[in-house]
Amino acid sequence: MPRDPFDWITGAAAARERAGLVRRLRPRPADDTRLDLASNDYLGLSRHPEVIEGAVTAARRWGAGATGSRLVTGTTGLHAELEAELAAFCGFEAALVFSSGYAANIAAVTALTGHDTLVVSDAGNHASLIDGCRLSRAQTAVTPHADPEAVDKALDAHGGRALVVTDAVFSVDGDAAPLAALAGVAAGHGAALLVDDAHGLGVLGPGGSGTPAAQGVAGGRGVVATVTLSKSLGSQGGAVLGPAAVIEHLVNTARTFIFDTGLAPAAAGAALAALRLLRREPQRAARVREVARTLHEGLTASGLRAIRPDAAVISVPAPLPEQALSWAADCRSAGVSVGCFRPPSVPDGISRVRLTARADLERQDIDFALRTLAATAPRA
Ligand SMILES: Cc1ncc(COP(=O)(O)O)c(C=O)c1O
């Protein structure tokens, strides 16, 4: 009898089970009463009435879907408005909206590189940047985490066209990249700098305008940034921000722009409403940073080895994947949702429980979360 073509999947599943690395989907109830420290809804905007109204109005006016690629029928007035306002808010000349942050990252890396380009990529970068490097077919040098000197050396050794790629705030540990130093190093070699600000928009910089603005590199000549609309802005989608010539180049060459259906009008409308709300209420950004600091201080005070957050993400290493998994499960049973990161999602192989601060958490929420985390922590 011919062999079952999916036999190998059973073996792979058994190996995952033995290693404690099985992932399962857990649909969340719409009326979940647990305290949410797992989502990326940093500003608490995904359920804000104005943001929901932005989505509803856009769907009524433009329809449920974008109906085609951005280059065919998928661009509405709403997309253009969102691009103009995002670019202005973050301090860049122009912007281009994509159907996800993932697609925006793939587009930026692949469109800004060629066979002769060196990509210098931080070891802690997000999977979407790593996939962009792979798809670019350019030579990639992976440098140690947050190490501008190593980037300098890699650029020196290459000598030609190059792109330096980094998360602005690293999604696993929540630390910020040294963007000013990296921009200086890149400029010194005539290289471009691509910054993924998925976790910085809405949290860092004046009024939440992002990490490039916070570190004084927004709008710089060789600087391009990407953002997601799915975290602080509570919607869905992504964008690339940069010089107008770069944006026009992306419109003409980026495959995840050209061969993808445009962002749904409802998502564009929600993101635009969230952006306008953030401009009107800039204190939301300061508040999420304050909540993150308070959570970190509380965890440290209870003897947990939490990594100091530069933005909203707070990571607590757990020695074994099973421990991270059961810690997160115990928190969930006690009423607090937290994230759980295990290999292969962690570059150094160390599992973590991950908390995300939200601007709308009250003091009693923070205290409850801290008590729960301490009571359920794995014993050494
Ligand atoms: C650092 C980083 N970059 C990019 C993305 C991808 O963004 P999106 O979820 O909009 O595809 C994420 C989020 O998941 C992220 O954490």
TrEMBL record:
This is 8-amino-7-oxononanoate synthase. It comes from Streptomyces smaragdinus. InterPro entries: Aminotrans_II_pyridoxalP_BS, Aminotransferase_I/II_large, AON_synthase_class-II, PyrdxlP-dep_Trfase, PyrdxlP-dep_Trfase_major, PyrdxlP-dep_Trfase_small. It catalyses: 6-carboxyhexanoyl-[ACP] + L-alanine + H(+) = (8S)-8-amino-7-oxononanoate + holo-[ACP] + CO2. One of its GO terms (molecular function) is pyridoxal phosphate binding. Its cofactor is pyridoxal 5'-phosphate. Homodimer. Pathway: Cofactor biosynthesis; biotin biosynthesis. It comes from the Bacteria. It is an enzyme of class 2 (transferase). One of its GO terms (biological process) is biotin biosynthetic process. Belongs to the class-II pyridoxal-phosphate-dependent aminotransferase family. BioF subfamily. Its EC number is 2.3.1.47. PANTHER family: 8-AMINO-7-OXONONANOATE SYNTHASE (PTHR13693:SF100), CLASS II AMINOTRANSFERASE/8-AMINO-7-OXONONANOATE SYNTHASE (PTHR13693). Keywords: Acyltransferase, Biotin biosynthesis, Pyridoxal phosphate, Transferase. Residues 35-372 form the Aminotransferase class I/classII large domain.
